[in-house]
Design brief:
Length: 472
């Protein structure tokens, strides 16, 4: 049924204004004042902001990692995302050396099909570069619309690639029109530091942070940025956690390099002291890169405000405290890295960012939605409120206060890293292509209704049509 949203304040990355939105066939048909109902269902957004649905560029749903599998899958994870105001996610598809890239993509389609309640796409991990991989990449781009490649500079002997692989991926991406993403930490130095710590009996969660100091992130970020300049290619640095790394991105951008950076709510709000919580509670806060000394938060907020960092990812990679995180009770290197973040990304940025005057309302939309849509080839289909765009819309009440808690969240895990934190502002209703997924704070979606998004090449606008997935 057609819908019309009345009385709300529309906010995009560049404008804030009052108007009605008429939605037809899942798309924004008309934006204007005093629009006629034309028999459409009326949504009263009085007192609310009307935001484009959030685009989360960084998730790991049901991902094998650290001797276990991340707990939230494409169903629980995307339901939680929808509650939090996110209507598109781009998940990391892991590949295996020596196997066709298409095998990995099939595996990810099988995980997500019939499960996702919001629209989704995949980034493709590149773990090796050889003729087979180089020959396959154009097909992956053409058939799957996967236009972003991920290279890990850390996790030695697991995911880590060498500099030749990174450099050749950057060259290939330039030719093919893809964006290279890096996890930027120096994995070799981390390996040395962790072995050294363990040999001294330093096994508690805090040593996770102390063996991955900011210098190893700054160094890897600077290295990746320099290689991008040399290759004349394009780079996106995921989960920037500290000033050292943010400064390297700013430096590269000043030189004219096409380098972008993402940070995450955990680095803006939590700090290294959380890893010192007693009774192994610190394990709940084990991310890579690790949480940093608190003063880094100002540097990250400042970088978001000035545009030196451009996006907010959740880096959703959730593990239960009991049964998963506690694999590392006697050895911090065995604690699965990552945390539950997909649900609260939007609210935390609004509450801690906009309401505390650190970023503007329009910057909030830009960093949580529009910029990722642009960088990853789904704009203007996603990431904005404009005629012709998909009607992915969040009706957001900026007054509602709530306390974040595992007892009320919708993620599948047994803890929330922000337990007890009060946030102001909450999505009340969320539409994906014009259909309610969340209606008055109740989930009304259907697993499998999310569509796979083929994405445009880097720097191009999205014209691609949604793909119907069939799995043999
Ligand atoms: O600790 C993290 N960030 N876990 C997820 C995997 C990754 O490195 O992004
Ligand atoms: Zn990472
Ligand atoms: Zn990640």
């Amino acid at each position: 049924m057609n819908k019309i949203i009345r009385n709300g304040t529309i906010v995009t990355a560049s404008e804030t204004y009052q108007a009605d939105i008429l939605i037809k066939n899942g798309k924004i048909d008309t934006i204007g004042t005093a629009l006629k109902d034309e028999g459409a269902e009326v949504i009263d957004a009085k007192g609310c902001y009307v935001f484009p649905g959030g685009v989360d560029p960084h998730t790991h749903l049901e991902m094998p990692f650290g001797g276990t599998v991340s707990k939230d899958d494409f169903e629980t994870g995307t339901i939680a995302a929808a509650f939090g105001g996110t209507t598109s996610v781009i998940d990391f598809c892991l590949t295996e050396k020596g196997k066709p890239l298409s095998d990995a993509v099939k595996t990810w389609h099988a995980k997500s099909k019939d499960k996702s309640v919001i629209d989704y796409s995949f980034h493709l991990m590149i773990s090796e570069i050889n003729d087979k991989v180089l020959n396959e990449l154009p097909e992956i781009i053409k058939n799957e619309g996967i236009t972003s490649f991920k290279v890990f500079m850390a996790y030695k002997n697991v995911f880590q690639s060498d500099d030749e692989t990174l450099y050749r991926t950057l060259l290939a991406a330039k030719d093919l029109g893809a964006l290279v993403m890096v996890h930027a930490e120096n994995g070799d130095v981390i390996e040395y530091l962790t072995k050294d710590a363990l040999s001294k009996g330093q096994t508690e969660p805090i040593y996770h942070a102390l063996t991955r100091p900011p210098e190893v992130e700054g160094e890897a970020t600077g290295r990746a940025a320099q290689l991008t300049g040399l290759a004349n290619s394009q780079l996106y640095v995921v989960h920037v956690s500290c000033k050292e790394a943010a400064d390297k991105i700013a430096e590269a951008r000043k030189k004219g390099y096409d380098v972008h950076g993402e940070t995450c709510p955990q680095y803006l709000v939590l700090d290294q002291t959380y890893l010192e919580k007693p009774d192994f509670e610190g394990a709940k806060y084990v991310w890579s890169p690790p949480l940093r000394e608190k003063w880094n938060q100002d540097a990250l907020w400042n970088a978001l405000r000035t545009g030196e960092l451009q996006t907010i990812g959740s880096d959703q990679c959730s593990f239960d405290f009991r049964g998963q995180k506690d694999l590392g009770r006697d050895d911090f290197t065995k604690i699965p890295n990552g945390g539950p973040m997909i649900e609260d990304r939007f609210s935390i940025l609004f509450s801690e960012g906009v309401l505390k005057g650190r970023i503007s309302l329009n910057q909030f939309v830009d960093v949580t939605s529009t910029r990722s849509a642009k960088l990853f080839g789904i704009f203007p289909k996603k990431g904005t409120i404009a005629v012709g765009s998909d009607a992915d819309i969040v009706i957001f009440n900026p007054e509602i206060k709530r306390t974040i808690s595992a007892s009320t969240h919708h993620m599948a895990v047994d803890y929330n890293a922000f337990e007890g934190m009060e946030v102001t502002g909450e999505p009340v209703s969320v539409l994906v292509r014009g259909e309610y997924i969340i209606h008055n704070k109740q989930f009304v979606g259907t697993p499998g209704s999310g569509r796979y998004m083929k994405r445009a090449k880097y720097g191009q606008l999205s014209k691609a049509t949604d793909k119907t997935i069939t799995i043999q």
